[in-house]
Amino acid sequence: MSAILAIPIFWLVATLIVFEGADILSRRSGRHPLCHPVLLATPALIGLLLATGTPYPAYRESTALLNFLLGPAVVGLAVPIWKQRRLIRRLAKPLALALLAGAATAITSVVSILWLFGAPPEILASAAPRATTTPVAIEMAAQLGGIPALTTAIVLCSGILGAMIATPIFDALKISDFRARGFSVGISAHGLGAARAFQVNSTAGAFASLGMALNAVATCVMLSLIALLV
Amino acid sequence: MIGAIALLCLCQLAGEIIHRLSGLPLPGPVIGMVLLLGWFALMPRERPTLSAVTGWLTAHLSIMFVPAAVGLVEQGPLLARYGPALVVATMISTLLTLIVAVTVFRLAARRIPAKDEAP
């Protein structure tokens, strides 16, 4: 058995199969945020690693291909930004102001609360990019000396929470502008927020995707400036 | 198809090179994204294959961060100690960011008319 586990492609295949199963369950739930496939697949795979006594570095090496694809996927975020260039030009000032305010709030709030709890620097670095899309957050956290696994968990939780609370919050605040609603949920809750926004309204969905893509750049620039100054 | 993949990887490579040479703390792929935007601005035309490739990558992003997420298996003590703090911080931060961003957008959009609506 251990000889089979040591075959380089074993854990890649296991990950693909477990993820496909998780994705089927997620689809059956109507894509409920709490049934996100990563949220279902990760504990299952952790269970498999523990049950077989497989060390994480061996797992990581076997699934390196999936991790590798993150880089080109991040570069590809340029495409949706470029497609929305007319919208960006037309609403430049409100978009820029909301983006700066949102990105700054996301970073400072999570970092300061964790700091109050006495969290060490590697946890602050893991959480600081929490509002960006996961692949960007993983890269940024690694730059800052954070723990990519922790970042992934925090970012997913942000997205799930944002997707669930955005509509009730905006309704309570009596904000009916779907441009503002979509853009904000994209900034605060990245792809999961955008997926939810598309379910509510197509304008909100488009602005949410834009918010997610622009916030990936804005947050990285802000964190880099902070890193250079500190 | 290969051309589109090469363009994405080339941008990432250029981003990584800039990152290493300049010591800029921005991740290489993020610099690559900005470079690709610059390339679009220089050479504006339709790129259906590139759109298809990036669309496929984006649609399947979730599985790409499973290997990183499984790394939580090594973070047991940290999670036990700071788990509650992380939950509280993430909840408050997500809520605050939603409210601040939506409020600023509303205020700014009301004061600054969209360009095509300006007299």
Automatic annotation (TrEMBL), chain A:
<feature type="transmembrane region" description="Helical">
    <location>
        <begin position="94"/>
        <end position="117"/>
    </location>
</feature>
<feature type="transmembrane region" description="Helical">
    <location>
        <begin position="64"/>
        <end position="82"/>
    </location>
</feature>
<feature type="transmembrane region" description="Helical">
    <location>
        <begin position="149"/>
        <end position="170"/>
    </location>
</feature>
<keyword id="KW-1133">Transmembrane helix</keyword>
<dbReference type="GO" id="GO:0016787">
    <property type="term" value="F:hydrolase activity"/>
</dbReference>
<keyword id="KW-0378">Hydrolase</keyword>
<feature type="transmembrane region" description="Helical">
    <location>
        <begin position="206"/>
        <end position="229"/>
    </location>
</feature>
<keyword id="KW-0812">Transmembrane</keyword>
<dbReference type="InterPro" id="IPR007300">
    <property type="entry name" value="CidB/LrgB"/>
</dbReference>
<dbReference type="Pfam" id="PF04172">
    <property type="entry name" value="LrgB"/>
</dbReference>
<feature type="transmembrane region" description="Helical">
    <location>
        <begin position="6"/>
        <end position="26"/>
    </location>
</feature>
<protein>
    <submittedName>
        <fullName>Murein hydrolase (TIGR00659 family)</fullName>
    </submittedName>
</protein>
<feature type="transmembrane region" description="Helical">
    <location>
        <begin position="38"/>
        <end position="58"/>
    </location>
</feature>
<keyword id="KW-0472">Membrane</keyword>
UniProtKB/TrEMBL annotation, chain B:
<feature type="transmembrane region" description="Helical">
    <location>
        <begin position="85"/>
        <end position="105"/>
    </location>
</feature>
<protein>
    <submittedName>
        <fullName>Effector of murein hydrolase LrgA (UPF0299 family)</fullName>
    </submittedName>
</protein>
<keyword id="KW-1133">Transmembrane helix</keyword>
<keyword id="KW-0472">Membrane</keyword>
<dbReference type="Pfam" id="PF03788">
    <property type="entry name" value="LrgA"/>
</dbReference>
<dbReference type="GO" id="GO:0016787">
    <property type="term" value="F:hydrolase activity"/>
</dbReference>
<feature type="transmembrane region" description="Helical">
    <location>
        <begin position="54"/>
        <end position="73"/>
    </location>
</feature>
<feature type="transmembrane region" description="Helical">
    <location>
        <begin position="24"/>
        <end position="42"/>
    </location>
</feature>
<dbReference type="InterPro" id="IPR005538">
    <property type="entry name" value="LrgA/CidA"/>
</dbReference>
<keyword id="KW-0378">Hydrolase</keyword>
<keyword id="KW-1003">Cell membrane</keyword>
<keyword id="KW-0812">Transmembrane</keyword>
